């Protein structure tokens, strides 16, 4: 279905965290209204929208009211229940589509989708019980990583399978949920491609990002990634192939590992393994708020509104983004004093450990 | 009084137009909440804030409730009634101060303030009735401009006194309000200085802006203005002198005429006449949203929050800003397709003639 919203139309956003907040801010700049649907009364996005629904994602009456009061629905997280997405898609337009959600919210389905499209991932096997875990470990070796198929993020829902670990205990440690075992990828570098695809198939990628994690949480992103040009081009090609195969509308991020069989010694020998598809705006794209001609949030709004995509060029020679996690946010005063630093705070009341409280970008010339 | 807000604090903003909207968006980026107070149910700023009061500016109960629920009060327009400002200042901190408002909302008081500080303006005389208008016209000549002392903007509340015009009719045409007569300044160029002053006296100006008006409404701004360096420096010096004399806190804009006695032929002969002080963020500073390291809206929020001012450097070689007035906003689709154009729409429902509906910026490298 092809359409274009007019200014003044309302974008419904499922989820009220910082991604929903920054989407609402981008919509406002373009003269669009945002209606935030969240189950958390303290949602940061509630502070920046004209309409809000506080209800659970299983509340069918609230979902239906929301769907008929907005012109298009999008979301800030992929763990939207299938039934929720179906109710919304019945009454409104959901972008990206419920089919995309179904593919990307289940690690096994996602890996099977990638494999079917000829895209390399870590080796993986399906795990439904301690017995299938034992068979998978026999195949993929130790250490390897057991991950729940659904609801994992920032390292939640995964456990390392070490030498000597009791596999029944390991399987129970994730609550007995359906899982997959993944071989460990000996990566030289973690990268991501943040890109958008419009309803007409138009595709636009930002510079490939290079990411560093701490305690499974993104800590730092630099764009462009320091990569051989052919590797960067291949990364973008993979993201485009994924977006096309999903008939995707909106911004997506594809996380990849760069594997260098020569241990970093060789040029051009690098290979890519796709780790994860995020069917939404992504933390590794936050640098685009200050460092790109069009931010990822505006780009997502443009795509779901049926508007042309914006230019993805970069201001300056490179851009870096640091997350402010937990108490790191207390450096806000120091950051405010730093010329050229761009402070973004998410309006969260409590600086809990591991909680993303804000970020800072620096455009380097 | 010196203080610094903490993230999560609330900035109260009087006025719900596009300036209030862009202030609220800037506050949100910095983790501050915005509470908008407006007498217009269709206020564009209501769509982007966490708290809103819909009440008249004379409603003392609503004003008092507002004042005690916010941490600092600022405003998007200078025509705040004196009694309103006094009530708010009793219960909260108002920035810029009610004294600044009193000076800048009355053209006569403002000109007397400038004159007392040795700053050149157009020649002017006070006009209270047809008799004093006749005396002023005898002194300042025709054509000259009769302006109400208060509540004028975008050419409203002013009339040209032509050769042969009946002065009694002219005076009545402005409703008999207290007025001033201003001599016409034969200007070569209209410029403005958008600058900020912090609570500690820190001062930071953006590049001088060059402005073009159509039907008394700002149409176009370019930064930096094409000016001899000594003229630009003198313009900034005047803005600083004004901000210091007002003990100003926040962003202000000073509109000036560049008078070139040699008719544009000479270098360095230019003189400046201050036309108007806007004690708020200003239309000629909208280019800073995309073209400067810190936008004027963030800068104002920083100043009124008691935070350090941000860097005012420019992205790119120059920046231009075009207002989208009335039906010009219908070009939004074309602007969305233009690489490097930054579209800003204000969420106003109806594109009435003369109404500012949005703006577009282009950063030129």
Automatic annotation (TrEMBL), chains A, B:
It is an enzyme of class 6 (ligase). Keywords: ATP-binding, Ligase, Nucleotide-binding, Purine biosynthesis. The keyword Ligase applies. Residues 321-363 form the Phosphoribosylaminoimidazole carboxylase C-terminal domain. GO terms for molecular function: 5-(carboxyamino)imidazole ribonucleotide synthase activity. The keyword Cell membrane does not apply. Catalyzes the ATP-dependent conversion of 5-aminoimidazole ribonucleotide (AIR) and HCO(3)(-) to N5-carboxyaminoimidazole ribonucleotide (N5-CAIR). Catalyzes the ATP-dependent conversion of 5-aminoimidazole ribonucleotide (AIR) and HCO(3)- to N5-carboxyaminoimidazole ribonucleotide (N5-CAIR). Residues 113-297 form the ATP-grasp fold ATP-dependent carboxylate-amine ligase-type domain. Gene3D superfamilies: 3.40.50.20, ATP-grasp fold, A domain, ATP-grasp fold, B domain. It catalyses: 5-amino-1-(5-phospho-beta-D-ribosyl)imidazole + hydrogencarbonate + ATP = 5-carboxyamino-1-(5-phospho-D-ribosyl)imidazole + ADP + phosphate + 2 H(+). Pathway: Purine metabolism; IMP biosynthesis via de novo pathway; 5-amino-1-(5-phospho-D-ribosyl)imidazole-4-carboxylate from 5-amino-1-(5-phospho-D-ribosyl)imidazole (N5-CAIR route): step 1/2. ATP binds at residues 107, 147, 152-158, 182-185, 190, 213, 275-276. This is N5-carboxyaminoimidazole ribonucleotide synthase. It comes from Methylocapsa polymorpha. It comes from the Bacteria. Residues 9-105 form the PurT/PurK-like preATP-grasp domain. Its EC number is 6.3.4.18. Belongs to the PurK/PurT family. Homodimer.
């Amino acid at each position: 279905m092809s359409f274009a919203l007019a200014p003044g139309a309302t974008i419904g956003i499922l989820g009220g965290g910082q991604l929903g907040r920054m989407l609402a801010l981008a919509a406002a700049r373009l003269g669009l209204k945002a209606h935030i649907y969240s189950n958390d009364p303290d949602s940061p996005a509630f502070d920046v929208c004209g309409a809000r629904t506080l209800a659970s994602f299983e509340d069918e009456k609230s979902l239906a009211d929301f769907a008929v009061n907005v012109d298009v629905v999008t979301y800030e997280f992929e763990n939207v229940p299938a039934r929720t997405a179906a109710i919304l898609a019945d009454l409104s337009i959901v972008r990206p589509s419920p089919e995309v959600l179904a593919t990307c919210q289940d690690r096994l389905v996602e890996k099977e989708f990638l494999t079917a499209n000829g895209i390399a991932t870590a080796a993986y096997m399906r795990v439904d019980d301690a017995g299938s875990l034992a068979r998978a470990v026999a195949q993929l070796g130790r250490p390897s990583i057991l991950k729940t198929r659904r609801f994992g993020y920032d390292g939640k829902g995964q456990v390392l399978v070490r030498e000597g670990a009791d596999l029944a205990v390991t399987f129970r440690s994730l609550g007995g949920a359906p899982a997959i075992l993944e071989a460990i990828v000996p990566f030289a570098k973690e990268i991501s491609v943040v890109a958008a695809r419009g309803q007409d198939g138009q595709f636009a990628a930002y510079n490939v990002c290079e990411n560093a994690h701490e305690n499974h949480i993104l800590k730092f992103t630099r764009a462009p990634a320091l990569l051989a040009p052919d590797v960067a081009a291949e990364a973008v090609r993979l993201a485009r192939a994924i977006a096309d195969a999903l008939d995707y509308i909106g911004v997506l991020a594809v996380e990849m590992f760069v594997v260098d069989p020569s241990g970093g010694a060789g040029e051009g020998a690098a290979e890519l393994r796709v780790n994860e598809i995020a069917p939404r705006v992504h933390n590794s794209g936050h640098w685009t708020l200050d460092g790109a001609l069009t931010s990822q949030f505006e780009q997502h709004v443009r795509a779901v509104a049926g508007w042309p995509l914006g230019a993805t060029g970069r201001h300056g020679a490179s851009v870096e983004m640091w997350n402010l996690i937990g108490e790191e946010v207390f450096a806000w005063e120091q950051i405010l004093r730093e010329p050229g630093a761009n402070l973004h705070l998410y309006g969260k009341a409590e600086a809990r450990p591991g909680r993303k409280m804000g970020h800072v970008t620096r455009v380097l010339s």
